[in-house]
Amino acid sequence: MCGDADNDHYLSLGDVVYLANYLFKGGPPPHHYYSGDVNCDNTVNLEDVIYLARYLFKGGPPPLG
Ligand SMILES: [Ca+2]
Ligand SMILES: [Ca+2]
Domain for residue 1, yes or no? Predict the structure, then answer.
């Protein structure tokens, strides 16, 4: 599932934290790399964290793919 970085089958704050941890704290990568690529631009970066947080908390568009 796109955006499900921690692979628990739900999109939640845990995925935002997991991705932020990976990007900024040297944490483990998303289970499937593409699951961390929320906006489908073929890279996993801060924009994906923001996209996912926006979807979860601000009613933004759902993850692509
Ligand atoms: Ca998850
Ligand atoms: Ca991306």
Answer: no
> Is 7 within the bounds of a domain?
no
Cα 64 to middle of ligand 2, angstroms: 10
Instruction: Please report which residue ranges of 1-65 form alpha helices under DSSP H.
Output: 13-25, 46-58
Query: Ligand 1 centroid vs 14 CA: distance in angstroms?
Result: 6
Ligand 1 centroid to Cα of residue 17, in Å, is: 10
Ligand 1 mean position, distance from CA 4 (Å): 4
What is the domain count for the chain?
A: 1
- 46, 37 contact by CB (below 8 A): no
**Is 19 within a domain?**
yes
Give me the average pLDDT of each 10-residue run along the chain (65 residues): 91 96 96 89 95 96 83
